[in-house]
Amino acid sequence: MSDNAINFLTREKGLHKIVDACIEKERKLYEDTKENKKIDRDEYVTEMMSVLSKTAFIMFKNGDLSLPKKIYKSQVPCKYETQKERLLMVREIKDNQDNFRFQHRLFYDYFLLYYIAHNEMDLKLGERRKILESHAVDADSINSRRMYATFLASAKLYERITKNVKSFAASRYIKDQKPVELSEIYNVSMANIAIVDDPEWNIDRIIRLLPSIQSLRYRQFQINTCEDLGDYVDDRDLTLNKEAVLDSSGADRFGKLISLDTTAGTIKIRDLGHFDVSEEIWIGISSTSDFNELINTKNNVKIRLNLEKVLPTVFPELLPLIINENFKSERFFLCHGIDKLQINEILAKIDDGAENSEGLRNKIIFLVQLHYFETHYSEFSKEATSRIQERLDRLFLQNPEATDKLMDDLLRAHTTEHGENHPSATNLLMMYAESQYQLGICFYIGTEVEEDHGQAFAWWCLSANKGNANAQWRVGSCYYYGRGVDQNYSKAVTWWQISANQGNADARFNLGICYQYGIGVEKDDIIAFELFLKAANQDHIGALSWMGTCYYEGSGVEQDYTKAVNMFQKAANQGNGNSLYWLGICYYEGNGVEQDSVQAIAVFQKAANQDG
Q1: Rounded Cα–Cα distance for residues 557 and 86 (Å)
Q2: Distance (Å, rounded) from C-alpha 493 to C-alpha 420?
Q3: Mapping DSSP to helix (H, G, I), strand (E, B) and coil, where does residue 165 land?
Q4: Does residue 598 form part of some domain?
Q5: What is the mean pLDDT of residues 564-590?
Q6: Are 199 and 207 in contact (CB under 8 A)?
Q7: Which of 422, 451, 480 is the last residue of a domain?
Q8: Of 40, 141, 207, 590, whose CB has the highest number of CB atoms within 10 Å?
């Protein structure tokens, strides 16, 4: 470990230097007594650190900061002959006994912390925690946690800890898998940790080295020699496999838990009653009967479900049970999203259903439930939800009128029962609007249907009125260009404004053009530039190019050729031909760049080739 790392971790760096200087001075004095016989410095330092830390530990165990010479000689062996006086201890006359005492309490604290960092099995957890939490940070004491961390690091234990611990986290639930940072170790009494699935050390050693951690996530939790587990903190997170639950030590040894993760193994639901869990249980299920058994288990605890073992044929029956139960009291969630393979298998199964009206209705209901379940009750995968949405889009394309009617009936019934602001209702509305929008795309470009701009406009209007920002932009474009509807610039601006208010970059760009030229709205260069800026911040290439034009001409913003060139270059790098033309102008005129006719011609040629 580098000196810089130690200096970062501790304000007690001066104490390290004092101890080192004292031991070095003592080594030289010892050499003088041996007629200048040279002693290996590293060996001497290692031995003296061991002797002094052992002395501090015996003092701690005896509850006395002084140690009789007799005990010192018998219990603290040293390969080097004990000198009459050591620089970090002095011999005192007290009650006719020779007693050893550290020159200052700081040295006692220092060597005691050194000892527990290097001899983790010699103290019970409660004693180790007490030592680490015994000192306030003030002028007369050291920060025990910080000093202890430096000893872990200098003893090369930091590197070993990073191989066994996934992460420290300030929050209770650990989601990231970032490597442990050295700067985090000093805060061991405040940390929540996650242990790697296959640690090099057993859990006993990790707990002893980090005795004051607040919570622990570990998939293969087994206690072997740590008899004083009762001294370990309650209110923690544990991840247990089947062997850990069935361990002869018994569930009562784990005390009160914040969360219990049993997904590493198949734990019988009835075994959950052995654990005192205050907030959250993670468990795998494979059938509807498993879920029905869970309904009456731990009523006040959030339950996260692992559905990896659920067969595709079971999902249509299981999902309604979970969703309906959550309508009563929302407490069932997913451990993680349904993976891509499962989604593909599930969607393949629904294609086997009947093609009559009832079969179509059941498919729609299941797709809506699956999408809602994936998005609302898990950290969902966008790819997975896209596949579900695509399947609903396909039903619209195959049977537009019937699918639209069934979706409308389903939305009305759902809104009436749960209210329009319920997450399930808003999710259904979003899916409905997206499918209408995608159907409009198919009619507009003639994908698997005859090209029909009127039909495209009609479907986009339905979607736009349900709040779909892309559809709102498309409706505005139809009005602007007169496609599928009579041209009307004023209505185009209205719909683009509605879409822009929802953050649609294309709508913001098009609206900027209208304000730039006064099309359907009063001309306003400042508003135009602001709209181009918002769209450009969303990586809209056209908006980048128009921002360059605004800077070049001083339209809606102070003229700045340098910024203009910057915008043109960014847009040109992404293939915008108009920006190449303007960039050529800049080189030709020497505006914002050094005048260079050769470069200007090269850029103009590149723009021409791109247009061709």
Answers
A1: 77
A2: 29
A3: strand
A4: no
A5: 89
A6: no
A7: 451
A8: 207
pLDDT at 442 over 80: yes
Residue with tokens 């040629």: 605
What are the strands of the beta sheet with 215-217, ordered from one edge? 165-169, 192-195, 215-217
Distance separating alpha carbons of residues 178 and 295, to the nearest angstrom: 36
Beta-strand relationship, 97-102 and 66-68: antiparallel
pTM of the model: 0.64
Question: Which regions of 399-555 does DSSP assign to beta strands (E)?
Answer: none
Integer angstrom CA distances of residue 484 from 396, 438, 442, 463, 488: 20, 16, 14, 16, 12
Domain count for the chain, please give it.
2
Residue that finishes a domain, picked among 108, 129, 154: 154
The model's confidence at residue 36, banded by pLDDT at 50, 70 and 90, is: low
Q: Is the pLDDT of residue 521 over 80?
A: yes
Beta bridge mates, 446: none
At 119 the pLDDT is: 80
- For 106, other C-beta atoms within 10 Å of its C-beta total 17
φ and ψ at residue 239, rounded to 5 degrees: -115, 115
242 vs 504 pLDDT, higher one: 504
For residue 103, which of 77, 80, 85 has the smallest C-alpha distance? 85
The answer to the question of residue 75 being in a domain is: yes
Residue 28 identity: K
Contacts of residue 86, Cβ cutoff 8 Å, sequence gap at least 6: 26, 100
CA dist., res. 315 & res. 371, Å (int): 12
Domain that holds residue 130: 3-154
Cβ contact 277:253 at 8 Å? no
- pLDDT above 70 (res 141): no
- Token pair, residue 550, equals 């605004």
Has residue 80 been placed in a domain? yes
Among residues 142, 157, 186, 193, which one has the least CA distance to residue 172?
193
Q: Is residue 240 part of a domain?
A: no
Beta-carbon contacts of 342 under 8 Å, excluding residues fewer than 6 positions away, are: 307, 308, 310, 312
Q: What share of the chain is helix, strand, coil (3-state, %, to 5)?
A: 60, 10, 35
Query: Which DSSP helix (H) or strand (E) runs through 237?
Result: strand 236-239
Three state DSSP letters for 367-429: HHHHHHHHHHCCCCCHHHHHHHHHHHHHHHHHCHHHHHHHHHHHHHHHHHHHCCCCHHHHHHH
